[in-house]
Amino acid sequence: MKYVDEFRDPALARKVLKKLHEVVADIPRAKERPLQIMEVCGGHTHSIFRYGLEGLLPKGIEMVHGPGCPVCVLPMGRVDDCITIAEQPDVIFTTFGDAMRVPGSKKSLQQASAEGCDVRMVYSPMDALAIARENPHKRVVFFGLGFETTMPSTALTVMQAKREGLNNFYLFCNHITIIPTMKAILDEPGMSIDGFLGPGHVSMVIGKQPYNFIASHYNRPLVVAGFEPLDILQSLLMVVEQLRDGRAEVENQYARIVPEQGNLHAMAAVNEVFEVREHFEWRGLGSIAESGVKIRQGFEQFDAERAFSVATLQVEDPKSCQCGEVLKGALKPWDCTAFGEDCTPETPVGALMVSTEGACSAYYSYGKIDVHQAG
Amino acid sequence: MCLGIPGQIIEVKEGGQFGVASILGVKREVNLSCVYTPDQPEAAVIGSWALIHVGFAMSLIDEDEAQRTLEILKEIGELQEEMDAIAQSGSRA
Ligand code: SF4
User: Fold this and answer.
1) Of A46, A47, A96, which is closest to B1 when you measure between CB atoms?
2) Protein residue with least CA distance to atom 2, ligand 1
3) Is the beta carbon of A284 within 6 A of some atom in ligand 1?
4) Contact A40, A328 (CB under 8 A)
5) I need a surface site. Which of A150, A192, A199, A375 has the fewest CB within 10 A?
6) Nearest CA in chain A to B29
7) Best interface-test mutation with B: which of A123, A150, A171, A270 has the largest number of B CBs within 10 A?
8) Nearest to residue A343, comparing CAs of A330, A326, A78, A232?
9) DSSP letters along A195-225, please?
10) Measured in whole angstroms, how far is the alpha carbon of residue A297 from the centre of its chain?
11) What tens-digit pLDDT sequence spans chain A (375 residues)?
């Protein structure tokens, strides 16, 4: 247990781990094949790797790294659209830094910037709004990205733009929603995931209730989890206790941040500005019904898709890219033929190699030992 | 971007929607509208810690939680990323 000493409360961590081993030993089917538990959120993926948690878990638990990294699931077609917008005259294209290196079919935003497009990294959509105020003769586009965690911030920014009567600010909305995505994963033929760690900060916004169908309809436990190693271990314990007892419930390990009902003000802003899209394209996962949002009527003057007649072409992922299989938990990153050869964090082929929260990048940076053990 | 960063709210501007947070000593304008509840008057958030996502305070937390979260962010290497992003945008406050 070389990592446990680094934890905030090593004694407690040891206790939880011991309990985890005992409970899993009490579940007969875990001896035939490991219980598959998916952490939905990329933040959890990152934490699991950083602290080497997989190496501490009983053999009867296998972690499956889910699709919860918004940068990783951004399809190439949308990156191409960004570049088309950024190449228009008089456009300042603003984005979170995370999205700069995501490969499009021809180039990334970083390359577009090097070629002379005015692409600016911002920390907050509020900064994009400030750029719009300062540059009344430019059209300022903000690349809105992320799950429900960042959706309220974009919604509130659009509302602010409307209040100020700004006519040169646009949102290129690529926000995605977690619930339809989890449903799509649960509906995959041959889906073998036994339980879930629910995303902490998405849940802080949407609350616990939207996950109920996972327990009631799919009969799988879900525990909303925090990001500390101890949070993750405790949440895993809560999941396997449910599996041992034959229960399927939605529980909240992260109650210190996640209120049962979520953040009502944030959700009200989201519902005011956005409505569900019929379909949204995900890298590797294809089109998922109702998994994205778009700008509602009443705010359409801020919609970059209308202002720039974005084509939203569907672009196939590169042949060698197996991100989709990895996202579904069907393949481990090192099973992908591109892994570590053509595809590295410096030269990413697939999106899972771009962000530190992507499973491939995490394995590449932290997980080499595990790769050899597993391979 | 998804994990957020803890900051201490040090100023609430008129109207209450915007304020200033100190994030590891860096002052940054933040939107505060998501942390109010009916029983949480606006001035009362001054001095509170909040989890700040892309410039929006999303949830009030206690100081202990704030310190622990900063520690984790540092250990997984996201603290620097977040601080760089804040610095790059300028701390319009
Ligand atoms: S190694 Fe690269 S191409 Fe293969 S699944 Fe991972 S990110 Fe995708």
Assistant:
1) A96
2) A350
3) no
4) no
5) A375
6) A126
7) A123
8) A326
9) EEEEPHHHHHHH-SGGGHHHHHTT---EEE-
10) 27
11) 456 777 778 889 999 999 999 999 999 999 999 999 999 988 898 889 888 898 999 999 999 888 777 887 888 889 999 999 999 999 999 999 888 988 888 899 999 999 999 999 999 999 999 999 999 999 999 999 999 999 999 999 999 999 999 999 999 999 999 999 899 888 887 788 999 999 999 999 999 999 999 999 999 999 999 999 999 999 999 999 999 999 999 999 999 999 999 999 999 999 999 999 988 888 777 788 889 999 999 999 999 999 997 876 667 777 778 887 787 777 888 899 999 888 998 888 887 887 777 888 888 888 654 444 443
Q: Please report, for chain A, the start and end positions of each structural domain, with discontinuous segments joined by +.
A: 68-315
With an 8 Å Cβ cutoff, is B39 touching chain A?
Answer: no
Structurally, chain B folds into a number of domains equal to: 1
Task: Identify the closest residue of chain B to A47 by CA–CA distance.
Answer: B76
Phi/psi for B39 (5° steps) reads -95, 15
Chain B neighbors of A266, CB-CB under 8 A: 34, 58
For chain A, say whether B26 makes contact (Cβ under 8 Å): no
Chain B residue numbers touching A51 (CB-CB < 8 A) = 75
Q: How many residues does chain B have?
A: 93
Please, are residues B60 and A265 in contact by the beta-carbon 8 Å criterion?
Answer: no
pTM, whole model, 2 decimals? 0.90
What is the extent of the structural domain holding B24?
Answer: 5-88
Residue A324 beta carbon below 6 angstroms from any ligand 1 atom: no
Instruction: Tell me if chain A has a CB within 8 Å of the CB of B20.
Output: no
Task: Output the domain CATH number for residue B57.
Answer: 2.30.30.140
Q: Are B34 and B23 in contact (CB under 8 A)?
A: no
Ligand 1 center–CA A339 separation, angstroms: 6
Q: A360 in ligand 1 pocket by Cβ < 6 Å?
A: yes
CB under 8 Å to A267, separation ≥6 — which residues? A152, A205, A206
Residue B93 belongs to a domain: no
Residues in chain A: 375
How far is it, in rounded angstroms, from Cα A369 to Cα A353? Answer: 18
Give the CATH number of domain A68-315; options: 3.40.50.10490, 3.40.50.1000, 3.40.50.11740, 3.50.50.60: 3.40.50.11740
Instruction: Flag whether residue B83 sits within 8 Å of chain A, measured between CB atoms.
Output: no
What count of CB pairs under 8 Å joins A to B? 112
ipTM value for the complex: 0.89
Residue of chain A nearest B70, judged by CA positions? A228
